[in-house]
Amino acid sequence: MSDIYQPPPRTWRKKFADALQGVGQGAWGQSSFAVHCAAATVVVLFASALQLNHYDWGLLLLCIAMVMSAELFNSAVELLAREVDRRHNPTVGKALDIASGAVLVAALGAACVGSLVLLPPLYRWIGAFAP
């Protein structure tokens, strides 16, 4: 007899409900997630004001999703790490550092893409007001 837990099959509706609940649990009370949400809001406001094309919007939204996903994965790793070993464990610490590093890489990549997409039209917009 197997001691491995096998969850019962779920409907697609239940899977999506669980996924949305996971987003809420991963985001709720996470200061890092709040910072990323604030940055995403600023990016969306600038993109709207600059009337970017669909391609540029796609790049920006993909970057926002990438950073938010990385942050959710990081939160999941942190949650598991606390449950697996409540004492100081160097291996768990390394795993947490790697997960945080993944968020940093995603955020830096998104910042680079955001700069490449937003700065040229922003400079043109500012130049339109120059004498």
UniProtKB/TrEMBL annotation:
Keywords: ATP-binding, Cell membrane, Kinase, Lipid biosynthesis, Lipid metabolism, Magnesium, Membrane, Metal-binding, Nucleotide-binding, Phospholipid biosynthesis, Phospholipid metabolism, Transferase, Transmembrane, Transmembrane helix
Manner of cofactor binding, per the entry note: Mn(2+), Zn(2+), Cd(2+) and Co(2+) support activity to lesser extents.
One GO location term (cellular component): plasma membrane
Binding-site list for ATP: E78
TM annotation in the entry: 58-81, 102-123
Family annotation (InterPro entries): DAGK, DAGK_sf
Residues annotated for a divalent metal cation binding in this entry: E78
Broad EC category: transferase
Protein name: Undecaprenol kinase
Cofactor(s) for this UniProt protein: Mg(2+)
CDD domains per record: DAGK_IM_like
Active site: E71 (proton acceptor)
UniProt-listed Pfam families: DAGK_prokar
Highest taxon in the source lineage: Bacteria
Binding site for substrate: E71, S100
UniProt similarity note: Belongs to the bacterial diacylglycerol kinase family.
Gene Ontology MF term list: ATP binding; di-trans, poly-cis-undecaprenol kinase activity; metal ion binding
GO biological process: phospholipid biosynthetic process
